[in-house]
């Protein structure tokens, strides 16, 4: 769905393109930081006692879980320091990632 008037969309695009690459990169970084904070707040609301490893696991699955096979997800979670017990728990609880 696109409910933005073409003239406004054109002006917005021109505004973005008038910014330097560094400014656009900083904008993207800021948007990612905001999305990460919102996701972490949501995860903590669902699981207030989550450990740092559980937070890393849940955040990874929330942002990237659908982009990898089960085998790849488990390997990545292992590489980011999520213990096997937590990896298996999240994989079992989140069957939608299969």
What does this structure look like?
The protein is mainly alpha-helical and 98 residues long. It folds into 2 domains: 1-39; 47-98. The protein is 73% helix and 0% strand. The protein contains 5 helices and no strands. Helix 4 runs antiparallel to helix 5. The longest helix is centred in the middle third of the chain and has 26 residues, at 21-46. The model has no long low-confidence stretch (mean pLDDT 90).
Overall mean pLDDT stands at 90
Beta-strand percentage range = under 5%
Helical segment tally? 5
Q: Order of SSEs, N→C? A: HHHHH
User: Which class of secondary structure composition applies to the elements?
Assistant: mainly alpha
What separation lies between the terminal Cα atoms?
29 Å
Q: What does the radius of gyration come to?
A: 18 Å
Helix-residue proportion:
over 70%
Low-confidence stretches: none
Care to count the β-strands? 0
Oligomeric state of the chains present here:
single chain
What is the structure about, briefly put?
This protein is mostly helical and 98 residues long. It has helices spanning 6-18, 21-46, 52-64, 70-79, 84-93.
